[in-house]
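hey
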């Protein structure tokens, strides 16, 4: 039994109670429970208290009972994580004034140590948040997007900032926010979305390309990318993105 427990803990379980060993990659306390029950069946069978073998069907052996019990154990052991996954629904809500403190306190870290805090200004949270969104509570925002419809060119929507907590990356949150933004501004009559990023932000460039953005021609080229030189001040070159809705 100790060996079975160890085997089950190591993630691999093989049942030897039948005529031939059966097994699989199983790991769970349910497997141990299954083994205990299976052992009870085997002992009962040994003393012929439980007629597990049907005379008409010789293949019906204790091993099959073990397999069924272990399989059920495995399915049961997966249920909590499946339920947790299903319950973790990401709800998009409008960015609020109350989000400012938390978001501004984490952005430098989210941007890998780059000092971007000054660019996430309070006015976006207080006065320009009609088309800006967040996921998660104000004291633990998981992702946010700051975007607006251009006042001078109402057919253009602009995304100023998007950030996702490192722990929740590659989970589709930024895509969710972008697609929500596209729907909202599209319904408001926008036909294009623009955005910019630093030349060094290769993750952002890859992300935007994945979402169907193209790089606008620039006044220069850095690392093979078209860039608008000095776009955000002396030496502050930017890659500019465009997407048609
Ligand atoms: C860029 C960033 C917003 C992406 O957020 P995310 O939630 O991890 O992205 P998603 O999971 O929604 O990814 C959407 C698509 O982009 C791709 N993508 C995202 N990050 C990528 C990366 N670093 N490299 C390559 N592709 C990437 C994903 O593979 C995914 O493609 P798919 O849907 O075809 O599978 C996030 O990495 C971040 O917050 N970075 C720091 C802040 C920043 O640089 N913001 C952008 C400039 S304002």
């Amino acid at each position: 039994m100790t060996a079975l427990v160890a085997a089950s803990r190591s993630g691999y379980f093989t049942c030897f109670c039948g005529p031939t060993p059966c097994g699989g990659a199983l790991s769970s306390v349910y497997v141990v429970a299954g083994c205990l029950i299976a052992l009870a069946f085997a002992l009962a069978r040994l003393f012929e208290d439980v007629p597990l073998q049907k005379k008409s069907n010789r293949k019906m052996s204790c091993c099959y009972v073990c397999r069924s019990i272990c399989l059920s154990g495995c399915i049961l052991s997966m249920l909590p994580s499946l339920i947790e996954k299903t319950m973790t629904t990401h709800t998009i809500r409008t960015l609020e004034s109350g989000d400012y403190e938390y978001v501004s306190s984490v952005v430098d870290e989210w941007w890998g140590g780059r000092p971007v805090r000054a660019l996430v200004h309070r006015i976006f949270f207080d006065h320009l948040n009609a088309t800006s969104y967040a996921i998660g509570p104000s004291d633990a925002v998981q992702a946010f997007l700051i975007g607006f419809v251009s006042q001078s060119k109402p057919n253009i929507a602009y995304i100023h900032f998007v950030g996702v907590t490192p722990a929740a990356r590659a989970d589709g949150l930024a895509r969710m926010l972008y697609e929500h933004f596209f729907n909202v501004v599209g319904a408001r009559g926008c036909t294009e979305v623009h955005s910019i990023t630093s030349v060094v932000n290769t993750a952002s460039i890859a992300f935007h390309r994945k979402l169907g953005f193209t790089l606008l021609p620039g006044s220069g080229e850095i690392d093979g990318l078209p860039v608008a030189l000095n776009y955000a001040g002396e030496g502050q070159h930017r890659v500019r993105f465009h997407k048609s809705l």
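The chain has seven helices and eleven strands. Residues 118 and 183 are 29 Å apart (CA to CA).
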